[in-house]
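Researcher: Hi, I'm a grad student and pretty new to this. My advisor asked me to get structures for two proteins we've been looking at. I'm not sure of the right format, so I'll just paste the first sequence and hope you can take it from there.
Model: That works fine. Here's the first sequence with its structure tokens right after it:
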Amino acid sequence: MVILAKTGVKEALDKHPELKDILVSMSPKYERLNNKFVYNTVARWATFNDVARMGGISVCEILHTLNSKLGTVKELERVFPECINVSPKPAAMDKPGWLDKITNIYIMDVRDRTDFFFTEILKALGNLKEGESIKVINSFYPAPLTGMLAEEGYDYYVENVSVDEIILYVRHKDEDPDKNWRSKKESFETFDVRSSKEDPFGAIIKKAQDTPPGGGFKLVQKFEPIPLINMLTPMGFEYETVEKGFFEYHIFFYKTRESTEVKKTAKEGKVPLVIQAATPVVLPIVLKLLKSQKLMDKIQIQELKVWKETEKHMAWIVNGKADITFSALAAAAKLYLTGNDIRMTSIDIWDNFYILTRGYSAKTFSDLKGHDFYIPLYSGAPPYAVTVHLMKQLGEDPSEYNFVFGKPFGRPEEMQRKLVAGEIDTVLLREPEASFAIHEGKGEIKEAFSYTDIWKNLTGGGNQLPNAGLIVKGSLVKEHPDLVKLLDEELSEAIQWINENPKEAAAQSYDLMGGSIESLELFLERVTYKHERPADRIEEIIEYLTLIREDKGFSYVGDNEEVRGLFSLD
């Protein structure tokens, strides 16, 4: 990963623990990060921009030092060209009106304290009554604390008295924190996309999704982005637009705490929808689909959810919360055959199973013997079932292999990280993790073989393993058949565009998917995107579901004839 000013400290150091000692050596003020309790609390809210403020060090010095260790300086310079060697300053805040109405102030001067006083401040906040405030005097900008306050819905004000004296005022929390968000809008993180060379749509969607209820951000753009505003407001955002000058608009977005409960309402003529993606391989498709004007004229997005823990998407389907879901075929079959009213309207991702090795070459399963063979998810999931089936078809005995699973799940991204770090040497990965690992491995990680090639040889032709596609709620098919048809058409066009324009698709997907532009381009060169209606490939689909059921790696209730109903649009 490339470390930027906006990158979370805990996120980066959890992934690259070797960077902590380097960071601590840059300022005595960072030594507190060695305290486990401090690390798990303060670092949770701090970004590297915050860390620079706290230590009085140039954010660029920190970023160049850490990225040099990771070998990602060129990527830093590409995405953060405005980095200059000066100490960052927090944005000035307008003095709020509530400060003059405070009747009682508790003062805490922590400039000379070396102990961890974070919990003391939290306790004082919990004891505040209406009209009361605490005043914290510190020698540096209290970035982690302000992050926590914003997340918890407190109103606060930071006053820069001098280089060594910064005062933080926090008042008693209102019963309705959503009511007064405009009074603190200038404290929102600024997201300036005016100089972006690529379309910032994906970056803005990622920013909106990462904003917690009770939080906000300030978008700076050359114009008022009405289509974007129309997309975000049904997702729980309130907004305010301020025209600052010629080609400069500040749009303040605030995510209300009520946004956790989706309200299915839409403008007349539009269908309100909740969309979710359960696997990162579909994210380029989702982003391109969201830019379809034909589709946006017909729907109003209530919520867009991209799951990091992919299995959590099932609850939204079972509870009827999601209208459109991009998910694996196996998951769709299991949900349908256990009574959920859903239909799978297309298969869009095919196969993409790869065996990767580090430090040795392999061309067949037998070459993997003697190595710990890491399999994503768990032994009851399709990756293992497909592996066992192919092994048996090739005359191999699965009991002779040392399969390793995670506890409780083997997350693909975690296995990717371990492979890149040299902690493991044999793993089965799907896309995009396979391409990310190959790119980050810098020649050390090789693709041994793919399951596509084995499957084609076994079936004697061009068949592929159906992987994932589009699931829609059954009621959507019944009540809005024209919309489902339009969705299918726009999805087909989106996939065609991605296949023809992988570089543009990589740039569009960068902010939402992470990695680097180069690794995303490699992923889009390797992935098999192909929009197929299930009815046209039904026998291959049934064959795939049969093999993962028969090998007992994946089980569901029902038989082949019943599962055909999943693909019916009648």
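Researcher: Oh nice, that was easy. Here's the second one.
Model: And its structure:
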Amino acid sequence: MKLSNSTSFATTGRSRNGEPWVWLTAAGLTFGVAMALGLFLLILIKGASSFWPRRIDLFEISAGPAAEKVAGYVTQETQRRDTAGTLHKEIQVFRGNKELNGEAFKFIDRSSIQSSSRPEALLLVERLEYGPAIVSAVALQTPAGKIPAGSSEFEQSLETILDQGRVARKKLLAIERGKIGAISRELASLARLEKSGNPDPPALAKRRGELQASFEILQQEAAAIRKTLAESSFTGITADGKEITYPAGTLLDVFPSNRAGFFERVGEMLLRMTRFLREDPREANTEGGVFPAIFGTVTMTLVMSLFVTPFGVIAAIYLREYAKQGAFVRMVRICVNNLAGVPSIVFGVFGLAFFVYFVGGGVDRWFFADQLPTPTYGTPGILWASLTLALLTLPVVIVATEEAISAVPRGVREAALACGASKWQTIQRIVLPASVPGILTGIILAMARGAGEVAPLMLVGVVKLAPTLPIDGIAPFIHPERKFMHLGFHIYDLGFQSPDAEAAKPIVYATALLLIVVVVGLNLTAILIRNRLKKRFAVSSF
């Protein structure tokens, strides 16, 4: 009976002292997971809805003595109080036509709305400039003549004009960025040769003349394409009766939001997503796609991983296997752990001073002196950004690698040494293969942090808009000195630096969702590789 009482007391005491904390920990974990999932669902819903083609409403509102018509789709509902304290319910309507109205959005008091309808004639027109327009079709101007909106040939002719515009823009891009760009680069190379004192000036002058002739021919081809595009146009009329004509070269798409069925709207949504992923940004990044930002983010993260992995693994091997354990090594570990808590902007300042100005400036003086004072590597670029983030994430890889190495059983090491293997052979063939899953865990954590960093990149290479990619089809194909775009900086630029913050909101959510997908995709790839290697070396580990 006495033993039973003591056992009961011990159990009660353990329950009183331990179990509440266990439940509190579980509640905290649940709350944290719920917050993370809630944030992800918010971004998912907002990001996906930004691509959904909405119905266009036509509002008749009383604006003083006269009535006004506004066509657009509702983006949000708000409430405000006037100076008298009266509560007003307002809707925010995206009406487009920025070149006519000055602003793409309009707030409408619900009490001033006389009527609303959804005419099927209203169209959403996507353009290269000034953002979308909302109009009703009037006519098409083609080389064959004018086609009114009510004609049976109108829709087919409109599709033909849109297709011709897409093809013509691709040709212009190939001419201006490809062929003319190549000529410009060769002319710059000739200028450097002349500056360096080339022994054959007549040959250089002859080649310069040939390039100039080719340049003029390409300019004529581009002018002919633009002239062909100017022969066709689309004319529409706004809700307030203003007629406007759009040249065919500026039209991207014309979508009948109010006439389209569900599956047509789904198809339009998928088309918008595809354009968002494939196209370059335009209109101060508030329109177009984010392909350069996706490419820059992935490239920078992969290059960062290539730099941080060998340095982190080598440092961890030395600290764990070769360094004499003592006060100095303990101090080094403390410094490594403290580096993980240093603000990222400090790494950015260090990267700018050391990598850009010191290392990059030295490279320019030694290898690109003929191009000075214009810097080649002594300016921010993707190489210096990757090295800066590699330094930022280095403590994560070192700590994870040390833990993985220390987890390898001592008996496995002793067995290898007993078989005649040297210390390095034991590390190379036994310890490192068994530690690969843990090393990859550190790399995954480093990639997750590095891909989302923005502050240091603002100093060492990221820009608002990069006309060229760090990797392209132009020799030498890899350009580590070039600046690049980044999804994280793109979100910051749209959210805080955009001239039209309201128009940028949908792209902010869509870009945030895309950044999460990119980071998760990179991490899942690394996790799959880690799991395969873990199964492969499971026998050799234990």
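Researcher: Is there anything I should tell my advisor about the second?
Model: You could mention this: The two ends are 47 Å apart (CA to CA).
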